[in-house]
């Protein structure tokens, strides 16, 4: 069976989306999730372009990945600069990434108008950069930028640029439809001509400006591409990149090609939602394969048919991609997800267990209130334990007060929190300041609890996100707070929802503390 390598560029191309800005913690957490999915290459960013990308490569090197290789992305050496003295090339090597992907111009228009150098010199930039990098790194790839547009205007030069990379020792040559305007009927002839002229393995990198990014990627694989690049949920600049959440199941389930395992494929929907949450983006319900509505049935005739035989209105079984069939009038919806998560968390659940019905009912009610548990696995695990009656109560809140005071127009506000809790038969009162009301409340809660539970000293609040759920209500809108916490062993997400941002934050904070303490038992 032909094996296709999946190359994810969510952390670079995806972060160029207009509405997305990943923190360093987000990038690390997403990389670890992509590794679980079985992605072969994870492009971490452009080292040297900004401090966050540079730090990412240091941080991710502290984690042992099971499946993926980390790739650093950068451009060829600059004109008139020796490759040994080029800062961009040095930054790529200093990243210590095992794979380097080099951006090279293949459209003569860009060479003349953007780089403003001769066509021959551009070929030297590509060749010198790859040849030099190959002396230090085992895998070097060329991203042939604007290749399809370049080929349509000047095919001889576009192919010369690919040959320069091949001659220099590039391991994979990736054909890029950077402007996203190539039509599916145009791609085959171009791809076949490349195959006649280039012997190195080929990859495909498409953008979605004409809404055919996924189609072009699939066609390229059918024609012989061995690597496919894209992003989770299709995030990217302008109209986005080719969506891996559609490409992967199309390759695996439709074309019967080997890319990730069946078990890894079951994590696809979870990863899609996870990235949405960390990107602070609303999940699109109608996204193919992974969307909430992808296998949802509402019409009476459809429901009757699909209950007898799901194939009547479903092109695959939703469980194959981690999704679930939803019958909008049935309370059976969601059971498969519950069983899947229970197994993952090591919680014993049988189909006859009353807790299953309770969890499904609770999930529906919480979802209606605005809760989302993708990206908040800690809260969901606690919910399941509570339904099973095994969630321990570590403390009881007796009350808290948060004060925010601004004394002068040109000074930052001062935030203070006081909290009263009971642990067993002991009452504890603590106060603390913080960088904002939520941080103050977090500090006060930890201060009160650490004398009873010293393990909480290991916990750090790594990230804090607020999502407005109904923009039309303005400052009265319900908010969802997503908190990421971690210790020296792991990271976990928790969630809270309320019209009051302090209350929503409190819910997420309590779950974060409870999750850590349950791990310690």
Short description:
This protein is an alpha/beta fold and 521 residues long. The strands form 4 sheets. The protein has an 8-stranded parallel beta barrel with strand order 1-2-3-4-5-6-7-8, surrounded by 9 helices. A 3-stranded antiparallel beta sheet has the order 11-12-13, with helices on one face. The protein has a 3-stranded antiparallel beta sheet with strand order 14-15-16.
Gap from first CA to last CA: 46 Å
Structural class: alpha/beta
The description of the largest β-sheet is: 8 strands, parallel, barrel
State the domain count: 2
What fraction strand? 15-25%
> What is the total tally of β strands?
16
Major beta sheet, strand line-up:
1-2-3-4-5-6-7-8
CATH architecture of the largest domain: Alpha-Beta Barrel
Q: CATH homologous superfamily of the largest domain, by name?
A: Aldolase class I
Shape label: globular
Number of helices: 18
Q: What is the mean pLDDT? A: 90
Uncertain runs with pLDDT below 50, 5 residues or more? 329-333
CATH topology of the largest domain: TIM Barrel
Indicate the topology.
Elements lengths: L4 E4 L15 H14 L3 E5 L5 H10 L8 E7 L11 H8 L4 E7 L2 H8 L3 H16 L4 E7 L1 H7 L1 H14 L3 E6 L9 H11 L4 E5 L6 H11 L3 E4 L13 H11 L7 H4 L2 H12 L16 E2 L2 H9 L17 E2 L7 H11 L8 H16 L7 H11 L8 E10 L8 E10 L2 E9 L2 H13 L10 E9 L10 E8 L4 E8 L2 H20 L1
Parallel strand pairs: 1-2, 1-8, 2-3, 3-4, 4-5, 5-6, 6-7, 7-8, 9-10
Antiparallel strand pairs: 11-12, 12-13, 14-15, 15-16
């Amino acid at each position: 069976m032909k094996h296709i390598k999946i190359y994810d560029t969510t952390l670079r191309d995806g972060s160029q989306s207009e509405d997305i800005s990943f923190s360093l913690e987000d990038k690390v957490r997403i990389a670890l999730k992509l590794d679980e999915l079985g992605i072969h290459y994870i492009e971490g960013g452009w080292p040297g372009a900004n401090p966050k990308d540079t730090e990412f490569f240091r941080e991710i090197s502290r984690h042992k990945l099971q499946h993926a290789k980390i790739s650093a992305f950068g451009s060829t050496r600059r004109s008139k600069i020796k490759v040994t003295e080029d800062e961009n090339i040095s930054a790529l090597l200093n990243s210590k990434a095992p794979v380097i992907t080099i951006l090279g111009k293949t459209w003569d228009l860009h060479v003349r108008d953007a780089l403003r150098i001769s066509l021959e010199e551009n070929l030297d930039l590509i060749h010198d950069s790859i040849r030099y990098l190959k002396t230090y790194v085992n895998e070097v790839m060329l991203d042939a930028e604007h290749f399809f547009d370049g080929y349509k205007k000047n095919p001889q030069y576009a192919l010369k640029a690919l040959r320069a990379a091949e001659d220099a020792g590039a391991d994979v040559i990736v054909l890029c439809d950077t402007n996203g305007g190539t039509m599916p009927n145009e791609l085959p002839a171009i791809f076949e001509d490349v195959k006649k002229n280039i012997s190195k393995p080929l990859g495909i990198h498409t953008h979605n400006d004409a809404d055919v990014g996924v189609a072009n990627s699939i066609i390229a694989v059918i024609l012989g591409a061995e690597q496919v690049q894209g992003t989770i949920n299709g995030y990217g600049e302008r109209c986005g990149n080719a969506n891996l959440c559609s490409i992967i199941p199309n390759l695996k389930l439709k074309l019967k090609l080997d890319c990730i395992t069946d078990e890894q494929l079951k994590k696809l929907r979870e990863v899609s939602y996870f990235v949405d949450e960390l990107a602070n983006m609303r999940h699109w319900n109608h996204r193919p394969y992974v969307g909430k509505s992808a296998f949802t049935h509402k019409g009476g005739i459809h429901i009757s048919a699909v209950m007898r035989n799901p194939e009547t209105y479903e092109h695959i079984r939703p469980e194959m991609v981690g999704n679930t069939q939803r019958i909008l009038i049935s309370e059976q919806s969601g059971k498969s997800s519950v069983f899947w998560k229970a197994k993952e968390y090591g919680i014993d659940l049988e189909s006859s267990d009353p807790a299953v019905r309770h969890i499904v009912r609770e999930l529906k009610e919480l979802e209606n209130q605005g809760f989302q548990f993708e990206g908040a696995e800690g809260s969901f695990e606690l919910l399941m334990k509570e339904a099973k009656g095994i969630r321990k109560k570590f403390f009881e809140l007796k009350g808290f007060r948060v004060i925010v005071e601004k004394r002068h127009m040109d000074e930052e506000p001062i935030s203070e929190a006081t909290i009263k809790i009971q642990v067993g038969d002991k009452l504890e009162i603590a106060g603390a300041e913080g960088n904002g009301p939520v941080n103050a409340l977090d500090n006060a809660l930890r201060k009160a609890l650490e004398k009873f539970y010293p393990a909480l000293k290991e916990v750090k609040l790594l990230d804090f996100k607020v999502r407005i759920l109904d923009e039309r209500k303005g400052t009265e809108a319900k908010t969802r707070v997503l908190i990421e916490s971690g210790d020296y062993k792991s990271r976990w997400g928790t969630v809270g929802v309320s019209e009051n941002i302090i209350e929503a934050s409190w819910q997420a904070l309590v779950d974060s503390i409870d999750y850590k303490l349950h791990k310690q038992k």
